[in-house]
Amino acid sequence: MDVSPFVFKPGDFFRDRLPPADLYVLCQIVHDWPDDKVHEILSRVAQSCKPGAGLLLVETLLDEEKREARVALLQSLNMLVQMGGRERSPGEYQCLLEQHGFCQVQVAHLGGILDAILATRVGP
């Protein structure tokens, strides 16, 4: 008997309707896409988010000056060449998220190659 409160739903976030949720988790998704697709993804998540729901992004973060995070810089170049995407700084993620109605953006450096960005959806 599964008593887990979590339900995972497969799908294509460019075509399928996103199910309502209290928390959306995008792990190493946003960096794959060029800006227009990132805005499309975040817009679709925002439309499905109720006020107070969260969005957790797990990505490799660049430093704000884009000089020190060498692994992230190499990864960003790789994403640009292969997919048209890129790594971003915490400030760039905050700007993206705020454009789609997310606030209270918090960044947690996890001590490895990945970091976490948590934001809350405000009103409609």
TrEMBL record:
Enzyme Commission number(s) from the entry: 2.1.1.4
Pathway as given in its UniProt record: Aromatic compound metabolism; melatonin biosynthesis; melatonin from serotonin: step 1/2
Record-annotated O-methyltransferase C-terminal domain positions: 7-102
PROSITE patterns to which the protein is assigned, alphabetical: SAM_OMT_II (PS51683)
SUPFAM superfamilies reported in the protein's UniProt record: S-adenosyl-L-methionine-dependent methyltransferases (SSF53335)
Lineage top rank: taxon: Eukaryota
UniProt keyword annotation of Magnesium present: no
Gene3D superfamilies: Vaccinia Virus protein VP39 (3.40.50.150)
Top enzyme class: transferase
Keyword annotations of the record: Melatonin biosynthesis, Methyltransferase, S-adenosyl-L-methionine, Transferase
The keyword Nucleotide-binding belongs to this UniProt entry's keyword annotation: no
InterPro entries membership: COMT-like, COMT_C, SAM-dependent_MTases_sf
Pfam families given in the database record: Methyltransf_2
Task of the protein: Catalyzes the transfer of a methyl group onto N-acetylserotonin, producing melatonin (N-acetyl-5-methoxytryptamine).
Protein name: Acetylserotonin O-methyltransferase
Annotated organism of origin: Saguinus oedipus
